[in-house]
Design goal:
The structure holds two protein chains of two kinds.
Chain A lengths: L2 H14 L7 H17 L4 H17 L8 H17 L14 E6 L6 H14 L4 E6 L6 H12 L3 E2 L1 H4 L6 H14 L4 E6 L7 H14 L3 E7 L6 H12 L3 E5 L9 H9 L3 E5 L7 E3 L2 H9 L4 H11 L2 H13 L4 H14 L2 H5 L5 H4 L5 H16 L3 H5 L6 H11 L3 H21 L10
Parallel strand pairs in A: 1-4, 1-5, 2-3, 2-4, 5-6, 6-7
Antiparallel strand pairs in A: 7-8
Helix pairs in contact in A: 1-2, 1-4, 2-3, 3-4, 4-12, 5-6, 8-9, 10-11, 15-18, 18-20, 20-21
Chain B lengths: L1 H9 L1 H14 L11 H10 L4 H16 L6 H17 L12 E6 L6 H14 L4 E6 L6 H12 L2 E4 L6 H14 L4 E6 L7 H17 L6 E7 L5 H13 L3 E5 L10 H8 L3 E5 L7 E3 L2 H9 L10
Parallel strand pairs in B: 1-4, 1-5, 2-3, 2-4, 5-6, 6-7
Antiparallel strand pairs in B: 7-8
Helix pairs in contact in B: 1-12, 2-3, 3-4, 5-12, 6-7, 8-9, 10-11
Classes of the chains: A alpha/beta, B alpha/beta.
Chain lengths: 442, 311
């Protein structure tokens, strides 16, 4: 979702790389570009302003480190500041000491509350929790029916004004009764879908306040979509003032929205971003990783941390080779397999993966279990190749691919996919080959 | 003034920000000072006008000032307003009369307000004594058809629907045949929300337009993209993708009743040359208002573009 911003920043950084000294004029030029890029990404202008100031202060006060080019230094600062702005890693819903944990989903119309309710219910049901959904959106036609359909599909009970026996207009009573029933039924988690409302609608905001005092929810999550514009700040501010948000869910991130709103909302509320919605299907919800997001904004993987880690784990010789390959864009499957082996040594695959340029593209966001599986399969495929094939994937004709598929217990499609992903990654690396003329290792 | 003031209400917050902001720029001095241009830029950006349009406007002002002309508050508002109106007028089109049933396809990303907008338009048609048929071609989202059926009951419109997961094109086709057979005045086709980056879903949309054209030659006559005013500059990407896929003929901007600024509509109209037809400023059917660029610019600026006359 940050792809466009990434592109913009890359072009900005291009002007910064390959220069010996970071002059204030260069910095100003780069910061101007960053400012426009962030504004175009819908980050609120006041947030952009403070961000730029923070980066400038850090960049100017910084001593010029020998190992990094000025461009790299600014990148590092921008990245660190972005991470700080997006806050700590998400821990999902904080479950109450004494169940049930009550979660209220609030937000504007059409932000994705009902869909998110279904996704969260499914997520925690799989984790073995006894979940209940509450349809407290009595305004939108058929909103209750929508939640019922979602509930049926994942086999989670849905409380409606009918099932709890209250008036069809009284959302607060529905929630109150449902919460009581959740205690009787010994539920772990109660997820309440509320009606969409504009934050300037006093009467509806008042209803939310009453709902809050009626059931004292443990979590109040603002559901906001990734396309939200400059208005994100006022929306988040008002919801936070009136409700005391405990978290934010960012939806519809699979599009090309730049999602700058997330930076703004986080900045004005201080509430953590807990989940991101990544698709229409019930399982398309993920925890939020700020550092990963920051790296993604910069579109380069966290090459600096990777190098730091590599320095501790690689032999000097391997180091040189890998960096050379990355730098020249001439990565071979052999390097790739070697890297995978090293990474395993270096700690969590997931942690490392996020740092490799192009890797997020090769292994698009997924849960760590499937990442591990994918890695295993990749390793098996590469192991089944001859050294010649690893160095020259171009020789892989149909017959060779069939042989490799047999040898690695995969299919030809798997191999085709790997090669395609590998090619994409290589292209990506080529784009970075202009980056960092100063030697990274002396 | 009725409609304008309603639109004005919706814009109250933006207006305050923009107009108070502009007034602050002139505090203590009657003409625009070059140093305050940065502040002005920030103000315009806060209205979602988009960095490009803002930059153009600012450099235009800069030039005026460096040429030694002074810019007072009225001429500043006038310049901004005419800038906005010129851009919005680009989308204006005229078209001939269409033999009923007039078929309108509604599309947009998830949660932009397609079904609600159709409901409101159906109500307006009903009040005019027109016969409308609604097609529930959103077969993906749970209970989307039920939502449209409820609107159909409210507005006395017949709803053509299929089962969940049915081919939306087939429902659109059936609805088109029904509209013709029942001599309806208009047919509104509700489609599933889709992100513009999903190629297969954009193909589905193309298929719907193709198939409807087979039932009624020339249909769909209007292909309307619904945009959420609370959205930011991604709306431009949405507009471009939908336009490339099926050719958008009009825009409707929803949810302007929040503090949403809706300024992003300006770069969209600029890019697509497609008119804004309606704006949604509230929950009631009457809150879907025909769009007027002049009123929009006025509302955005709370513009009194001429100095008050002393008589």
């Amino acid at each position: 979702m940050f792809e466009v911003l990434t592109k913009k920043l890359e072009s900005v950084f291009k002007t910064l790389t390959g220069r010996g000294v970071l002059s204030e004029a260069h910095l100003t030029e780069a910061l101007k570009g960053i400012r426009i890029a962030l504004l175009e990404a819908d980050v609120h202008f006041s947030v952009v302003k403070s961000f730029i100031e923070a980066v400038r202060a850090k960049a100017i006060g910084k001593e010029v480190s020998e190992s990094l080019s000025p461009g790299q230094q600014v990148i590092k600062i921008v990245q660190a500041e972005l991470s700080v702005m997006m806050g700590a890693e998400s821990k999902g819903i904080t479950l109450a000491q004494i169940p049930p944990t009550v979660v209220l989903l609030v937000g504007l119309q059409g932000s994705g509350k009902t869909t998110t309710a279904g996704k969260l219910a499914r997520l925690y049901k799989i984790k073995g929790k006894r979940v209940m959904l509450v349809a407290a959106d009595l305004k939108r036609p058929a909103a209750v029916a929508q939640l019922q359909t979602l509930g049926r599909a994942i086999d989670v009970p849905v409380m409606t004004n009918d099932t709890v026996g209250v008036d069809a207009g009284d959302a607060v009573a529905v929630v109150k009764q449902a919460a009581a029933q959740a205690i009787r039924e010994d539920r772990d988690l109660v997820i309440v879908d509320t009606a969409g409302r504009v934050h300037v609608d006093d009467a509806l905001m008042e209803e939310l306040s009453r709902m809050k005092s009626a059931v004292s929810p443990h979590e109040i999550l603002l559901v906001a979509d990734a396309m939200t514009g400059q208005t994100a700040v006022s929306v988040a501010t008002v919801f936070h003032q009136r409700m005391g948000l405990t978290g934010i869910v960012l939806t519809k991130t699979e599009g090309d929205a730049r999602g700058g709103a997330v930076l703004s909302m986080r900045a004005v509320t201080g509430a953590p971003i807990k989940f991101i919605g990544t698709g229409e299907k019930p399982d398309a919800i993920e925890p939020f990783y700020p550092d990963r997001m920051a790296s993604r904004i910069l579109g380069m993987g966290d090459i600096l941390s990777l190098i730091e880690l590599a320095e501790q784990n690689y032999s000097k010789e391997q180091q040189k080779k890998t960096v050379q390959s990355v730098r020249s864009g001439q990565l071979t499957l052999e390097d790739f397999s070697l890297q995978i082996k090293q990474m395993k040594k270096m700690g969590g695959i997931e942690k490392i993966l996020a740092m490799i340029p192009g890797a997020p593209k090769m292994l698009p966001a997924m849960d760590s279990a499937s990442v591990e599986r994918e890695i295993k399969r990749t390793e098996a495929i590469i192991s089944s190749m001859t050294p010649h094939e690893r160095r020259n994937p171009a020789v892989l004709n149909g017959k060779r691919r069939q042989r490799i598929a047999k040898g690695s217990g995969t299919s030809v499609q798997d191999i085709n996919r790997l090669i395609k992903q590998f090619d994409d990654a290589k292209k990506m690396m080529k784009r970075f080959s202009g980056f960092g003329r100063t030697p990274l290792f002396s | 003034m009725g409609l304008f003031s309603k639109l004005g209400e919706g814009f109250a917050a933006t207006q305050r920000v923009l107009t108070e902001g502009i007034e602050t720029l002139f505090r203590g001095r009657p003409t625009l000072h070059p140093e305050t241009l940065n502040q002005l830029e920030t103000l315009l950006l806060s209205a979602d006008l988009g960095p490009e349009a803002v930059e153009r406007l600012i450099s235009q002002l800069k030039e005026t000032i460096t040429r030694g002309k002074s810019v007072d508050i009225y001429s500043l508002k006038k310049v901004i307003k005419s800038h906005i109106i010129t851009l919005l007028d680009r989308g204006k089109t005229t078209r001939g009369t269409i033999e009923p049933p007039e078929v309108t396809l509604f599309m947009g990303i998830n949660g932009s307000g397609k079904t609600t907008t159709i409901g409101k338009l159906a109500e307006q048609q009903h009040q005019k004594g027109k016969k409308t048929i609604l097609a529930a071609a959103d077969t993906f989202r749970a209970a989307a058809a039920e939502q449209l059926v409820l609107w159909g009951e409210r507005t006395h419109s017949h709803v053509v629907r299929g089962h969940e997961g049915a081919d939306p094109a087939s429902i659109a086709f059936d609805a088109a045949c029904a509209a013709r057979a029942r001599l309806a005045d208009c047919l509104f086709i509700d489609t599933a929300g889709r992100l513009q980056t999903k190629q297969n879903l954009m193909e589905e949309l193309k298929k719907i337009t193709r198939v409807v054209g087979k039932a009624i030659p020339g249909a769909p006559h209007e292909k309307i993209l619904i945009l959420d005013a609370t959205g930011g500059l991604n709306a431009i990407s949405q507009a471009r993708h939908f336009h490339e896929s099926v050719g958008v003929t009009g825009l409707i901007l929803t949810k302007l009743d929040s503090t949403a600024r809706g300024g992003s509509i300006i770069p969209i109209v600029e890019a697509l040359s497609v008119p804004v037809l309606y704006v949604g400023v509230g929950e009631a059917a009457a809150d879907l208002l025909p769009f007027d660029p002049n009123a929009f610019a006025d509302a955005l600026l709370d513009a009194q573009t001429d100095p008050p006359r002393i008589t």
